[in-house]
Amino acid sequence: MDFLALIIYPFISSLPELAKSCSEDKTLLIMVLVGCTLFAGFIGLLVAMAN
To answer: Where does the sequence pass through the membrane (predicted)?
Structure first.
């Protein structure tokens, strides 16, 4: 799980600026949500293959 934390940490540290940008631009918000969903699916797939 350290590997996962290593991937996620940069995203968490940039969340405040990203949230501020998203509140100004709804298109960016939708793109970020879609990206997060795809990323979560990809991680889920990796975890399923690892098991």
So the answer is: 29-50
Q: Which residues contact 22 (CB under 8 A, 6 or more apart)?
A: 28, 29, 32
| CA 2, chain centre distance (Å) | 16
Dist. CA 22–CA 41, nearest whole Å: 22
CA distances from 18 to 6, 7, 34, 48, 51 (A): 19, 17, 14, 30, 33
* pTM for the whole structure: 0.49
Distance in angstroms (rounded) separating the CA atoms of residues 39 and 45? 10
